[in-house]
Amino acid sequence: MIPPIASKFVAGESPAEALEHTRNLNDRNVKAILNLLGEHYHERAPADEDAEAYIRLLEDIETSDADACISVKPSQVGLDVGEEVFRENVERIADAAAERDVFVWIDMEDHDTTDATLDIFEKLTQKHEGGVGICVQANLKRTEDDLKRLADLPGKVRLVKGAYDPPAEIALKEKSAVNAAYKEYLQFMFEEFEGGIAVGSHDPEMIAYAEELHDEYGTDFEVQMLMGVREDAQTDLADEYEVWQYVPYGDKWLSYFYRRVMERKENLLFAVRAVLGR
Ligand code: FAD
Q1: Which of 70, 79, 223, 277 has its CA at 20 to 30 Å from residue 232's CA atom?
Q2: Would you say the pTM of this structure is higher than 0.70?
Q3: Residue 74, pLDDT score
Q4: Into how many domains does the chain fold?
């Protein structure tokens, strides 16, 4: 069982707990992006197992009628084992999702996986007529070109600042430069995309900028935030926009919880307060 201190950021160990959390979110008009925790498998067996678990989750989403989609990490379904394994697993997940009318996101990981991830996204989003989404990272210099490629494809694109630490030759290292790039890319997306824009950020400045761009260009967008982060803002924004919460679950919760705490020490305080009920 997940200790109360971690349950602010992780919905539970089982799909049933993740769906229970989804029901509570849906009651607040927030939709769920379900992510089974797991990454960097170096053998085929666990990658196949997680692909199967996602396929079972898709059935649960359909039968429970939850307003939910899924988000899959490439290295969770085999990219570290080999590109072919990754392609096979992500394709069978996307095929099963299309049958059940559930949307599939593909997360973006380290910079050396970007090409393989974009290539499979391109194939699957065309095959499933936009039923697939991809994440791009504003801290990578290549993202300007990647967005031009993505503008012509169906599906959704989640813009994030970037959670990995790519080398300086290919990445922006200053926070201010990443923020400026994030805004520049948002502007491009609102101008050039017909919709399918996902603002994957907790940053009030980026969300306010997206709202401005929406007013200017009329292009629809959604906001995506992590479970346990700015939950009140999620509910407030859901009055006006589509809001999706990224909901991790599964037995590998410890390292995820540790990451949330390390990236923002206040998170530990928030978690302690949640346990104490104040
Ligand atoms: P930051 O730059 O961290 O913070 C900016 C401001 O936001 C802060 O000053 C504060 O006002 C507010 N804020 C931030 N965190 C908190 C908090 N805990 N509590 C209160 N206010 C806060 N990265 C990837 O590389 N690949 C992915 O596939 C990916 N998927 C993601 C999916 C979602 C739904 C989200 C939300 C993020 C994802 N990320 C992903 C992570 C992302 O790249 C960033 O590392 C992460 O979101 C932190 O950047 P930020 O824009 O939220 O704000």
Answers
A1: 70
A2: yes
A3: 98
A4: 1
Domain that holds residue 142: 15-252
Instruction: Say if CB 242 and CB 224 are below 8 A apart.
Output: no
pLDDT of residue 5: 79
Mutate to test the pocket of ligand 1, among 40, 75, 160 (most ligand atoms within 8 A of CB): 160
Q: Which amino acid is at 220?
A: D
Whether 137 is in the pocket of ligand 1, judged by its Cβ within 6 Å, is yes
The alpha carbon of 147 and the centre of ligand 1 are apart by a number of angstroms equal to 20
Answer whether 202 contacts ligand 1 (Cβ < 6 A). Answer: yes
- Give residue 158 CA to ligand 1 midpoint distance, Å: 12
Q: What is the pLDDT of residue 254?
A: 86
pLDDT lower than 50: segments of the chain:
none
pLDDT of residue 278: 52
DSSP bridge pairs for 258? none
In total, the chain counts a number of residues equal to 278
Residue 265 lies in a domain: no
Domain with 70 in it: what CATH number? 3.20.20.220
The answer, yes or no, to whether any atom of ligand 1 lies below 6 A from the CB of 260, is no
Q: Is residue 67 part of a domain?
A: yes
d(CA 55, CA 167): 35
Longest dimension (CA), the chain: 49
| C-beta pairs of 217-225 under 8 Å, 24+ apart in sequence | 217/190, 217/191, 219/189, 219/190, 219/191, 219/193, 219/194, 219/195, 220/195, 221/190, 221/195, 221/197, 222/156, 222/197, 222/198, 223/198, 223/199, 224/33, 224/158, 224/198, 224/199, 224/200, 225/200, 225/201
The pLDDT of residue 3: 82
Give the residue, by CA position, lying nearest to ligand 1 atom 41.
Answer: 163
